[in-house]
Every structure is written in structure tokens, then in C-alpha cells.
Amino acid sequence: MREAYHAELASISAALVRIANLTGSAMGRATSALLDADLQLAESVIAAHGQVDDLHRDLEQLAIEVLARQQPVATDLRVVVTSLRMSADLERCGVLAQHVAQVARRRYPGHAVPQDLRRTVLEMGQLAQRLMAQAAEVIVTHDVEAALQLEKDDDRMDELHRMVFQHLLDERWQHGVETAVDVTLTGRYYERFADHAVSVARRVVYLTTGEHPAGPPGTPPAG
Amino acid sequence: MREAYHAELASISAALVRIANLTGSAMGRATSALLDADLQLAESVIAAHGQVDDLHRDLEQLAIEVLARQQPVATDLRVVVTSLRMSADLERCGVLAQHVAQVARRRYPGHAVPQDLRRTVLEMGQLAQRLMAQAAEVIVTHDVEAALQLEKDDDRMDELHRMVFQHLLDERWQHGVETAVDVTLTGRYYERFADHAVSVARRVVYLTTGEHPAGPPGTPPAG
């Protein structure tokens, strides 16, 4: 019985990691689609989202079955409940990657991101993907220090997000309102994606130490 | 024992309703602050968020205690797990109301919403508040028909959101990029707020019927 239980917990954790990996990769491809105005790639990110959705549903079903069958208490209960929350975070990240791809698709064959913001958006996309990879690692290792590091790394995302807004609000902005709208939304998608990755890491800290790390997971720079 | 248990479930539900009411009211006041450029009101919405946050934490603590102590199965288990998810939805709505107030504060003494969009934004704010009031009602009544109606009422929010984007992308837009950014973000805050209210209602449908209602809770019109 205990053994079966631990096998189930392990498979919940493995599913979380798998979803985190798929989601990080989706955001990476969505960023390429956005920067290269690559319609086919954008479509493939949007289409692949269904698969991640199915994984989520399976995972949540499994977690609820474990609660019902194993009746965990104390730490074990915390593990299962926290997994459900991580799953919700990751689900949202998947939707955000899809949104980035949708911006690319909507502006095709045009580019949603002007040349002078390409480098910043590229860095946001790469950082988002890296934060998610770190979050996946932390789910496996339960390494509190790495989890707290992730939160520090997210500061760079907030900085990049601020840079995007500074650029948008610069009087010399010459890309018109449609591009301003796209850039505003896209910037927010990356920032929210990173917040959810941080949130996953914070939940691991809570699981491991029993305490919520201080401070909320990022506040929007211009929202 | 059963009686104590049902009293605990009732207090979880009462806490959800209380938070939904506070959150709806926060969005109403944030909208007034935004439309009237009322700094004091904006500050009060931002400051009041801490109280809602405390209520959330208490509620989640209670739900986890109920899981540990009462070891619910089947429907009872579903009720507690679903309450945790509704709590997360409502928490997010509180943050979104705060974001609207922050836009008002940032632009003070200026107006973030130009005259020609006032009526649309007012309707978005009122609809958001109404959807949340409906969601609170549905939490109490478990009325599936009312829950599904909420989803239909949210269609109007999507329509308003589309109208905002049409206006932004109209060549005759003359309010500059800063206002375009504010309006883009604010429109998204209202739309996400409504999505979460719909999500609460959908969870009630799941609780009551055991089935997930068809279709995702709204897709962004221009995201």
C-alpha cells in the first residue's frame, strides 16, 4: 500500500515535469514564430496545446484519486494539494505560450515585434524558457536554494518588461498603435509566464520547508 | 462528526462568497477610480487588497485542515478540492481589481481612459461586477442553469473587449501610445476578471453535475 502510494506520488511529479518541459518548449517556439513571423510554427504551437491540456486533465484526475484512495495526511496531503496548484500554474503557462503564437499568427505576414525591440523580446522568450526549465528541475530536486534563485532570476524579466514599456512610452515610438498593442500584450504574456514559473518554485519551497517564502511573486511594472 | 464536517464545508462556502463580494466591490471601485481619476479611491482599493489576501489564506488553510481531519471521499472530496480552485480564481480577480486601480493611480491627475471609451469601460466594469455577483450567488445556490447563463453573459465582455481593440486600431485613434498601452492592459484586466468569474461558475457546474461544461472559458479576442 505505501509503495503503491509512493509510486503514485512519483508519477504525479513526473507528469508535472513533463508538462513543464512541454510548456517551456512551447514558449520557445512561440517566441521564434513571433520574431520570424513564421506562420507554420505559430500554428503548430497553437495546435499542440490540446495535448498539454489532456496531460493536465489526467494529472488532476490522478491527484484526486490519490486523495480519495490513500487519504494522505500531513506532508503527504500537502504534496498532493500543492501538485494540483502547480498543475494550475503550468496550465496557465501553456495558454500564455499559445497567446504569443496567436499574436504571431494574427500579424502574419507582418511582424508584431519591431526591429528595435527584437533583442529584448528574444531575451524575454529565452528567459521564460530558462525559468521554466529551472522550475521543472526544482520539482524533481526540491532544492530550496535553486527555487529561491529562480525568484531572483525573475527580477530580470521584470526589468525587461519595464524596458519594453519605456520603449513604448518613448516619444520617438514610431511603430503605430497596432504594434504598441501587440507589444503591450506580448510583454505581459512573458511576464505572467515567468510569474507562474516562480510560483511553481515557491510552492516547492513551501512543500519542503513548510513555510511560504516572503513577498508576492512579482508585481507588474506598468500594470 | 458529520455535523462538524458539514459546518466546516458551510464555512468554506461562506468564505468564498465573502471573498467574491469583496472582489466584485473592489472592481467596481477601481472602475470608478479609473473613470474619475480619483486617486484616493484608487489608493483605498490597493490598500484593501491585503484584507482579501488574508481571507484567502485562512480559507485555504481551513480547506486543507478539512481534507486532513475529515478525509472526505467522492463528492465531499470534490467539494473541498473545487473550493481550493475557486479560491485561486477569486484571488486572481482581487489582483486584477488592484491592477485597474494601479492604472488610475499611475495616470493621476490625468485620465487613463479617453472620453470616447468611457462608456465601453464603464460597461466592462459594471459587467465584471455583475458577473462576480452572479458567481457568488451560484456558489450558494449551486444553480446549474444560472452558472451556464453566466457564461453566456460573459460573451458581452468579449464583445466589449473586441470593441476596445477596434477602437484602438482605428486609424483615427488620437490619444497617443501611452493611453493605448493603458487601455490595452485595462481591457485585458476586465476580460481576465470575467473569465475567472466564469471559471468559478463552471466549477460549480462540475461539482453539481460531475461533468465539465463544454468549451474553454473564453478566448481573448485580440491576444
Query: What class do helices, strands and sheet pairing of chain A give?
Result: mainly alpha
Number of E strands of chain A? 0
Distance between the termini of chain A: 50 Å
Radius of gyration of chain A: 19 Å
**CATH architecture level-2 label of chain A:** Up-down Bundle
Strand/helix succession of chain A: HHHHHH
Overall pLDDT level of chain A: 92
CATH class of chain A: Mainly Alpha
Major sheet summary line of chain A: none
- Beta-strand share of residues of chain A: under 5%
The oligomeric state is homodimer
Using the alpha-carbon principal axes, give the shape of chain A. elongated
The CATH topology of chain A is Methane Monooxygenase Hydroxylase, Chain G, domain 1
Name the CATH superfamily assignment of chain A: Phosphate transport system protein phou homolog 2, domain 2
**Tally of helical runs of chain A:** 6
Question: Could you characterize the architecture of this molecule?
Answer:
Two copies of one chain form a homodimer. Chain A is mainly α and 223 residues long. The first copy, chain A, has six helices and no strands. The C terminus of chain A is likely disordered. Chains A and B meet through helix 2, helix 3, helix 5 and helix 6 of A and helix 2, helix 3, helix 5 and helix 6 of B.
Question: Which structural traits does this protein have?
Answer:
homodimer; 223 residues; mainly alpha; Methane Monooxygenase Hydroxylase, Chain G, domain 1; disordered C terminus
Can you summarize this structure?
2 copies of one chain form a homodimer. Chain A is mainly alpha-helical. The first copy, chain A, is 83% helix and 0% strand.
